[in-house]
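G., the chain you wanted modeled:
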Amino acid sequence: MQIRIITIFLFLIVFQQAQAQLTRDQYLQLENALGEGSFFSGHLTGFMLYDLDSQRVLYEKNSQMRFTPASVTKLFTLFSSILILNDSTQTLRYVQSGDTLKIWGAGDPSWNYKKLPQPKFQDFFKPYSVIQFSDANLKSTPFGAGWQWDDYLYYYAAERSSLPIYGNVMHVFAGRVNPKVFPTKFQSSIRTNEKETKDMERDFHSNTFYYNPDSYRGREDFLPFITSPQLLTEFAKNETGKNWIYKAEKLPENHKLWRGAPLFPILKEMMLESDNFLAEQLLLMISDRLFGELNSERAIEYIIKTYLSDLPDQPIWVDGSGLSRYNLFTPRTMVGLFEKLYRVVPDQMLFELLPTGGKSGTIKNNYQAAQAYIFAKTGTMSNNHSLVGLIKTKSGKLYCFAFMNSNYPWKASEIRREMEKVLVMTRDIL
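Predicted structure as tokens:
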């Protein structure tokens, strides 16, 4: 009986290994699609296809090469957030002192940003007459290392801060004549000029905004404003009706922590809409959770040394969002990271977080099919486009893949079209 059981066990192992290998024909199809003479031979391309069940690599091309990942970096932030933040945001650290509440922001991005669930600030501040705010625990700069300086004009490069409000962006309402904005404080800071621009722009050094009445198209927009403790206390006073003051006081050891909002909606918004601001604030909250200070660089160093030390190639990881061009990851490292996610995140939750081809998120208009087959995070910046996640094949089986492209001279839409051909073929042959 024992011999029979051992024989069956060995047969299953051999059968599983055989199933986890490509046939010669399958391999040649992928090689023709990605190898010499293909569209992808004209620029740097890396690809890995991985069987999650057998933990075997089925196919790889340049998987050891490093690429600029752009927003694929958010997979690192997602993994770290789930492990360290669990189910709630880090909102405030605080000390009670009579009728004064002394607070230090812990990175929570929720306050009046989009339609995220809100911390109950009114209830929290109700017993106090004075709110004393300090940002002495913030060690990271408003912009991350390697961000492009001229991105300051765009909503996707909003500044990082310890206690953001309104997502650190000004809302410009639609309308061509006398554009209206919120917060209304900025209404008096709007000027006209003769610069031929279609949209409103902000001065590089100040919260002064300009538009050209002759060329302004009046679309709805969001512009980052320059953050400051003084600006925050003014906005917070208007929102809460409390007297807010700023004092850069060091966070004492004897203090309390308030975790004010659910984490999952923030993770979902970050992943589906590729929200850079949320990703950066998540990394600050991770740092606050670990060290009681907001230091993205320190958080990254800790995570790499503790949770990611076994990745195939050490990631050069710089920020939470992928805005930095200093980030460099290999396809096989992305697969290694995604496998970790796949093992620790329940299936239903993972599929809710991943953009789905033809259905949701940043690939809603791509990879369309009668049955969804791509569940993956995109990453795009000039001359770089990547896709990392899961592919569901005609047999109904899920495989992990990383598809990374750099240094191409075409539009990202053309890269996506050619990638789709490869992924449709992969779906159909497995």
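Residues 142 and 161 are 6 Å apart (CA to CA).

Shout if anything looks off.
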